Amino acid sequence: xxxxxxxxxxxADHSTCWVGVASAxxxxxxxxxGLGEQPSRGALMAExxxxxxxxxxxxxxxxLIDAAGGAMxxxxxxxxxxxxxxVVAAGRREQAQAADGDGARFVALADRVGMDTLADLWQxxxxxxxxxxxxxxxxxRQWCHTNPDDVARLWRAGEALAAPDAVVAGVADYAxxxxxxxxxxxxxxxxxRGDFAVALxxxxxxxxVVAAGRRExxxxxxxxxxxxxxxxRNERVATDLTAAAxxxxxxxxx
Length: 254
Description:
The protein has helices at residues 4-7, 11-15, 19-25, 41-47, 59-67, 76-97, 104-107, 109-113, 115-122, 130-146, 148-158, 163-169, 177-193, 196-217, 225-250. By secondary structure, it is mainly α. It has one domain (4-250). Helix 3 packs across helix 10 (130-146) and helix 12 (163-169) packs across helix 14. The longest helix has 26 residues, at 225-250. The radius of gyration is 18 Å and the shape is globular.
């Protein structure tokens, strides 16, 4: 096990950037009980008593590291970086070897190991890092699959206001539940079967359209302040993803 003390020193700064998405996804959000507050593992288990037991939640990821010939690192930051690098390399290698593959196995990674596992690994990472960007992509997919009606509503409200970003994101002409889920899978799958930087830019564009929709639908005055704050955070995630895309092209995204 890693020592959480030192590695969590900057966690508060990093975790706040996910609020715009994570608040819609439930318990992985800093605003679980208020902005900036993170639930403890004990609280999660107490509030989800029927949640299935995972005797070895890291098995799939540690198996990938073993297969790559690496050793499991000891610190939280090293674990985040190592698992992210191995997941991306393994996913892209699998796609290169299977010409007709769709990346489904790695797109569905969170379905197999659980979002809690990915949160433990990656959510405190620097947003402009490889584990930070993977967390954003998987969290975006989770949001689109669990709250597609909300995403579609925000998309439709913001599409005309952020037309260039809407084109880049690639959602169907009329964003319905099916289209939202499909584009989330396509964006994440593109990280494995296509240009990783383009996948990040598509995700960033989607966040910008959603942010525009939030502002358009927000109530005037103080009652809409929370929604406008979420829009700001959506845009911050988009900015981080765009910066990460530039780093990937420069070979400096770690």
